[in-house]
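Researcher: We're teaching a course module on how sequence relates to structure. For the next exercise, students receive a sequence and then see the predicted structure as tokens, so they can try to spot secondary structure elements on their own. Here is the exercise chain.
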Amino acid sequence: MKQMKFLLLPLIALVISFGAKAQDINAVVEQFNKGSEAFKAENYQQAIADLEAAFTAAIAITDEDAAETVEGIKTNCKNMIPFSYSAIAGSLASEGKYDEAVEYFNKSLAAAEKYGNTEITKESVTDIINSVYSVQATNYAKNGEFANAIKTITKTGDEEAIDKINKYIAAAYLKEAQAAQKAKEYKAAIEKSKQVTEYNPESESAYLILGVSYFQLKQYKDAVAALEKCVALKESAQAYYFLAAAYQQSGNNTKACQNYKKVNDPKLSANAQAQMKVVCK
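Model: And here is the predicted structure for the students to work with:
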């Protein structure tokens, strides 16, 4: 998975030069500094713990002389804590731990709302989470785990992303259908073609394989139904030829004649012309 990009929130540099004698504010500054060092070292779990403790302690300080220092600590914590959750989420996603990554992205949003950070919004987090689900679903699909792929991509509610995964799965089944037809395993070709149409109802290639396979098994009514769908999606000489032949075998010479006339492929035209002499009377 490519490294994910996150919004690095603006941090206010806090230079501690407070000279007050109050022990409480010194303890808060020390706690914040621990969190800041952990943050710089990318030890984000520790940073979260220290910074949350520093924030909680800071808001309890009422000494007006310490107000500027307290505000600096609060502002930095407001930015650093949500970002720490996002950074952890990004690392988890990069490791393929997608469910955990989503959990931490949601924690990032919760922290942003808790600390009043307006840079991280529900919309921005939702976009990132959806991208995580898209990567996870694609990986499932590549591994042939189609049910998991669909289950995962559906979580996004993104029709375009869902359609993309559906077509990826359909393409995988189409390859299997084509291989089965080439091997003259027509029952298997029918099964795989049907699976293609479940995920991509507009696959004319699947309906062509389905129709030809039914024809080869002498199931002419089913062949006609599949090939009519095929030519409705995309006209082709091969589809018209087998459609005409299926109508002919079904005893509908009128329809057979109409479809043989639409065959314009040199490889099929001679046979089509010969059959037209039989059915076009």
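Model: If you want an answer key for the exercise: Residues 1-21 have pLDDT under 50 and may be disordered. Residues 185-279 form a domain with the Serine Threonine Protein Phosphatase 5, Tetratricopeptide repeat fold (CATH 1.25.40.10).
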